[in-house]
């Protein structure tokens, strides 16, 4: 069952990319277990919770709203992991944040309305699951492993006014061996 979004206004940046926001939701600050949700389009496949930004909405607020709607969790919003582009078919630009979960709702909007499920995965397992259906979502976790871990001191969020900060495209990681991607 697909999600019906009445009166949704899609927002785009100056280059025509749809503006999206998402969170890697972790069980703890160790960032070793991540929460994935079932896809509304393909319920047997897992994705990172996220969606379109509303007009006048800040990326961090949009990310928190999306995980509340899709995963039924609240938490402490952490650093901006990066801004990821998906050029080929969809032309999305997604702000991806780290969120440490502090509250888990028993029933939430998408579980009631469309039967969405959620499940905790070890980061390595989540990467494998996401590579099949949503490789760009797997890239979020691969970037996390490459150096944005909570222990390396890289916990500052860059200014979002700086339009050239932290863009990652599939082309930047596709040539690397999977062991270091």
UniProtKB/TrEMBL annotation:
The keyword Acyltransferase does not apply. It is an enzyme of class 3 (hydrolase). Its cofactor is Mg(2+); Mn(2+). It catalyses: diphospho-myo-inositol polyphosphate + H2O = myo-inositol polyphosphate + phosphate. One of its GO terms (biological process) is diadenosine pentaphosphate catabolic process. Residues 17-145 form the Nudix hydrolase domain. One of its GO terms (cellular component) is cytoplasm. It is found in: Cytoplasm. One of its GO terms (molecular function) is bis(5'-adenosyl)-hexaphosphatase activity. Its EC number is 3.6.1.52. CDD domains: NUDIX_DIPP2_like_Nudt4 (cd04666). Its main location: cytoplasm. Pfam families: NUDIX (PF00293). Keywords: Cytoplasm, Hydrolase, Magnesium, Metal-binding, RNA-binding. Belongs to the Nudix hydrolase family. DIPP subfamily. This is diphosphoinositol-polyphosphate diphosphatase.
């Amino acid at each position: 069952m697909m999600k019906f979004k009445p009166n949704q206004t899609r927002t785009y940046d100056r280059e025509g990319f749809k503006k999206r926001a998402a969170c890697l939701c972790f069980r703890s600050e160790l960032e070793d277990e991540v929460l994935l949700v079932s896809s509304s389009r393909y319920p047997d496949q897992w994705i990172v919770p996220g969606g379109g930004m509303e007009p006048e909405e800040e990326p961090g607020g949009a990310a928190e709203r999306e995980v509340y709607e899709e995963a039924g969790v609240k938490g402490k919003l952490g650093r901006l992991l990066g801004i990821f582009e998906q050029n080929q078919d969809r032309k999305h630009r997604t702000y991806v944040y780290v969120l440490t979960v502090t509250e888990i709702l028993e029933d939430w909007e998408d579980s009631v309305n469309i039967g969405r499920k959620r499940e905790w995965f070890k980061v390595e397992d989540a990467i494998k699951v996401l590579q099949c259906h949503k490789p760009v979502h797997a890239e979020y976790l691969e970037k996390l492993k490459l150096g944005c871990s909570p222990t390396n001191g890289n916990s500052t969020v860059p200014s979002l006014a700086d339009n050239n900060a932290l863009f990652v495209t599939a082309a930047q990681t596709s040539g690397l061996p999977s062991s270091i991607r």
